[in-house]
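About this split. The held-out portion is used to measure sequence recovery: a designer receives only the structure tokens and must propose an amino acid at every position. Recovery is the fraction of positions where the proposal matches the reference. Here is one held-out target exactly as it appears in the evaluation file.
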């Protein structure tokens, strides 16, 4: 695991927001949930990051199977959907090794995933619990300043929350709930979002990228 972490650290420091290029990916999973939701979301976030931080992220955003060895070639993976999520034992082991080894997973509940993803995360890390990130967490104070997670879409009237799994002081997994960041990243016409909400979502997304890739998930 230390070797994998060293590879990730070298990869991030060498290529992130500097010379060369690297890719983000969207996680493909089983269970019936629509992992393919919001197809313009992450590409739009990549474009925004390249513009705002002079990054050099590959604009192509592929899907990667949760159980694939290719997962380890992406320093940042996004996951979304509305429904059921099921990881097999081998997929769970692969994802666990990826996260322990230095990878970063951002899960954005696209409304309807919560009841399914939480049990899977408990199986994924039975010894690490989801903890809510406070409003003053560094992830909200990167290039853009936020007082906690912005609310992009209303569903049940609940507040937007950011949860994390922290491994040896590093935020390895971020779960954003009741916010719909991914919807906000999409082309503005898809959900008839306001320009303000579209920009807020992209700015918060850039903060997540900046914190995960430049800070390595460390406070």
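Reference sequence for scoring:
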């Amino acid at each position: 695991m230390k070797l994998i972490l060293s590879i990730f650290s070298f990869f991030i420091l060498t290529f992130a927001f500097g010379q060369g290029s690297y890719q983000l990916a969207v996680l493909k999973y089983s269970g019936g949930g629509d992992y393919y939701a919001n197809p313009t979301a992450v590409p739009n976030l990549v474009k925004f990051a390249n513009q705002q931080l002079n990054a050099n992220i590959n604009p192509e955003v592929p899907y990667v199977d949760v159980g694939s060895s290719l997962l380890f070639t992406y320093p940042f993976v996004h996951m979304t959907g509305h429904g059921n999520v099921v990881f097999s034992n081998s997929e769970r082991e692969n994802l666990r090794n990826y996260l322990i080894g230095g990878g970063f997973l951002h899960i954005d509940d696209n409304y309807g995933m919560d009841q399914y993803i939480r049990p899977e995360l408990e199986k994924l890390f039975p010894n690490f619990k989801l903890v809510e990130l406070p409003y003053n967490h560094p992830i909200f104070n990167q290039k853009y300043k936020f007082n906690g997670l912005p609310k992009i879409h209303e569903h049940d009237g609940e507040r937007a929350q950011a949860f994390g799994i922290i491994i040896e002081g590093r935020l390895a997994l971020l779960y954003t709930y009741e916010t719909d960041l991914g919807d906000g990243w999409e082309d503005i016409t898809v959900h008839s979002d306001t320009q303000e909400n579209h920009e807020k979502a992209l700015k918060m997304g850039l903060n997540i990228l900046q914190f995960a890739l430049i800070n390595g998930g460390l406070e």
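Annotator remark: Residues 1-20 have pLDDT under 50 and may be disordered.
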